[in-house]
Amino acid sequence: MEKTELGNTGILVTPVGMGVLTMGASQLNLSLEEGAGLIRYAYDRGIRFFDTAQYYDCYHYLREAFRGIDTSRNNPERPVICSKSLTATYEGMEEAVLEALRDLGLESIDLFLLHEVRHDPDFEIRGGAWKCLQDMKQEGLIGAIGVSTHHVDVTERMAEEPACDAVFALTNYAGLGIRKGSGAGSAPEMERAVRSCLEAGKGVFAMKAFGGGNLSADYRRALDYVRDLGVHSIMVGLGKREEADRLIQYAEGTLPDSYAPDVSGKRIRIDQSDCEGCGACLSRCPNHAISWNENGLADVDHQICLTCGYCAPVCPVRAIIMW
Ligand code: SF4
Ligand code: SF4
After folding, report:
1. Domain span including residue 316
2. How far apart are CA 116 and CA 47, in angstroms?
3. Same domain flag for 48 and 114
4. Is 172 found in the same domain as 41?
5. How much is the average pLDDT of 226-249?
6. Residues near ligand 2 with C-beta < 6 Å?
7. Is residue 273 part of a domain?
8. Mean pLDDT of the region 173-180
9. Domain boundary pick from 252, 276, 309
10. Residue 283 placed within a domain
11. Residues 223 and 312 both lie in one domain
12. Which pLDDT belongs to residue 309?
């Protein structure tokens, strides 16, 4: 698969990447063998860009998958790994990066990000963690640094941030999950922000092209939209080998025009670690399929849910995914 430089980082990435959250305990909960096998399958078929995070608790899969592969940064065929941390402090970030290096078995990591920068003050609040990333990059422990975000304003801001090398931004044609300040943002607003980053020479890669699974039926349209923004890579969470095959076919231009994914088995799922209990989905569901569970968080009754997907767009934190 042809690779492209991630902005001005000098790091070469494939046009599609594999997110590993999907296989972790919060979602498919694959065994070490299954998860590592899936990652290695994707690598052997050409994918060279992998996304994880301290919070995902998935480093063991990657380490096992890449056993026997030269992961040093002077191997052009190495798997490029991106990780990130939610921490705000200098010490917390230092610990997070060292943990990633240790648990992934790496001497240095290509990309490390502030995970999920939520709004403008959030970047300032996490100034200690940001300074730590700059220092660790200087020491050669990290190749490039940046942020992951669902926010238009944060993405815009990163175009102006000299120390930021790369932005991992949420974007999809329907605008699902895009935020701006404390409210909803739109796809056109995120498009403009992404373009500003690209013009500023930042590496840009995209998440949630399928809007948490809600746009999966429009497989090609969803990916085309993001690719046509000019991003350097599209990161997709993969849970099965067929999904990897399909994504690689798309990237290589061999996906049949007639391809239509079977989404009939899809289910709505509420990520309990993301739900903030705001209640918006309960009000939105026309079938009263969502109720509070014993933890005061939202849960779906699959006997009633019609997988219409109406609830997903109203969730301010993208906790509702179609799976
Ligand atoms: S998918 Fe539709 S029916 Fe199911 S919980 Fe969401 S709004 Fe309700
Ligand atoms: S809309 Fe999202 S955050 Fe609010 S209760 Fe539903 S799942 Fe939780």
Report:
1. 268-322
2. 24
3. yes
4. yes
5. 96
6. 270, 275-281, 298, 314-315, 317, 319-320
7. yes
8. 87
9. 252
10. yes
11. no
12. 73
Ligand 1 atom nearest the C-alpha of 304 is 3
Task: State pLDDT tens for residues 60-82.
Answer: 999 999 999 999 988 999 999 99
Model confidence pLDDT, tens digit, residues 36-66: 999 999 999 999 999 999 988 999 999 999 9
pLDDT at 20: 95
CATH number of the structural domain spanning residue 303: 3.30.70.20
For residues 190 and 71, give the distance between their C-alpha atoms in angstroms, rounded to a whole number. 34
The ligand that comes nearest to the alpha carbon of residue 305 is 1
Ligand nearest to the CA of 320: 2
Ligand 1 atom 2: residue of nearest CA: 308
50, part of any domain: yes
Pocket of ligand 1 (CB under 6 A): 268, 284-285, 287, 289-290, 300, 305-311
Q: How far apart are CA 40 and CA 85, in angstroms?
A: 24
Output the 3-class SS for 189-255.
Answer: HHHHHHHHHHHCCCEEEEECCCCCCCCHHHHHHHHHHHHCCCCCEEEEECCCHHHHHHHHHHHHCCC
